[in-house]
Amino acid sequence: MRPFTSWLFTRERLRPSVFVAVALVATAVGLALYFTDPLHEIELKTIDTRFQIRGDQRPPSDLVVVAIDDLTFDRLGLQWPFPRRVEARVLGNIMREAPKAVAFDIQFSEHSSLGESDDIALLTELQNSNRRVVLSNTEPSSTGQIQEFGVNGNKLLSEVGATPADGAFPNDPDGVIRRLPFSVSHLVGLDVATAAVATRHKIRLPPGNTAWIDYYGPPGTIPAVPFYEVYRGKVSFYEVHGRDVPLSGKLGADFFHNKIVVIGATSPTLQDVHETPLSQGALMSGPEIHAQAIGTILAGFPLRHVSTALDVLLVVLMGLLAPLTSIKLSFKASVPVMVAVAAALVFGTQIAFDDGRIVAFVYPVIALMIAIVGSLGGHYMLSGFEQARVHDLFSRFVPSAVVDQVIARTDKDLRLGAVRRVGTVMFTDLRGFTSFSEALEPERVVQVVNQYLGGMTEAILEHGGTLVSFMGDGIFALWGAPLEQEDHADRALATAREMLAERLPRFNAWLAEEGYDHAFRMGIGLNSGPVMSGNVGSERRLEYAAIGDTTNTASRLEGMTKGTPHQLFIAESTRLSLRKAAGDLVFVDEFPVRGKQASLTVWSVPEPGMGAPTAPAAPTAPAAIPGEPTVPAS
Q: Less Cβ around it within 10 Å: N or C end of the chain?
């Protein structure tokens, strides 16, 4: 096995290597996913969530929808498509109030089924509109040519002063409308064209051919006037968020003055309703989507995606932060850092969105999750190595029964903090071993000691004891610490009985088999009470210890067995601590103890294979314990 210092140096190099590897893997996976974009739809859903968290925004006051709704069909009693003269009358009523622009989200590509006069009615109003009307057409050719009123629409609309535009929206893969087009097949988009007409100048567009629609709110956010009300020439109310807002007066009261008006179908039966990021279970009509898109353009396209470089930087940061901080921080210290980084990513992307910046979220999250899981795995792996190292280290100096306890409670200096416990302390000694060993070779001495200590150790551990230390052929053991044991006295007494009745005879039998003409006796002292236990020593050498008067008294009790017929002395404190009464205990005597004013009451057990031993006479036997037989002094 390599020296511990060599292993330590390897461990010091292993920690940064593990976390650097985690950082590289997390970053590489995050970037690979970002550039291949297999989770595009999930990323889009996170943008919808950001809209919902941001909440409703106040729309511009100059946007209004003229809605061809179910109520319009009921009041007008007309079938779709309406006669062109109906749209002409509505347009004329609106234009008298001098709006900024009027956009028809209605297609007039074919001749009217009611004849040329029906087409002329609408064309006349278009010609009188002072170039403020935009007509939608969703069927342009590859060169941007369209058909209107059954003829060349580009030429016809140019003659009457109307602007042709494409009214289609690009659907995202999940069917949600999130972006507005600048042009389709060389035909300008309806929203861009309407914004240009309203402002009387060319719109400055961002790079690309689409832009995010900065939705103000869910369906019903833009005020909607029923089509039939405008047709009748009297607008008595408009609808916002499902509520009717009453108005008074005939048209001419400047309701449409300086407004941008989008005319189109809002009735679900005409199938011009769509899902948007803020649909929330309700579909938004095409005219309202156009109105919200026009507002986005006039606001200067406030919602934009950050550059690819910033997205990449974010992915890299999310992949690096958790692992690299884990190089210096412990597991407990690194977890708050990981949580803080995750929270910063979540809140940061939302704050950026509220400020009009769309930041990639899914792929940085994936990089962060890989980094966190990898870092936790690295901590777990290194912790396993560390626990194995500490276990190996302490198993050399402390009993295996307390190694796990030591690991759980050691500080950075690998010290086990002191605890106060009530337990039972045992000291044992093999009588006459020193003189016995003087005639043996050192190898034989070690062999005999190991045979003896091995059997006695098994007895201690099998009864849940803590083997504190060996002192030559002596043993120092403890019950009730570092782990609490309510039956510590019972366990200690049972161990002492097993040592005397089984382990010692077995050891003596082994000696006979090995050719040694010698049979040993032993001394055991048991005392119960409070002990202070913990790790003592230096960084280079640590030992588990139990310190206090209880320990000192147990040691003296073991020594006091010398010269007596007893191999076991049990303190009164141990007898009183037994949870199960031991009916065979015999009173020995009350002995003075050096350093104590009060004498020590001592008990024992019958020697194996013998009746009650003859003990020294006692001046006065102690009072009988209720529930136990009274044993006369021997």
A: N
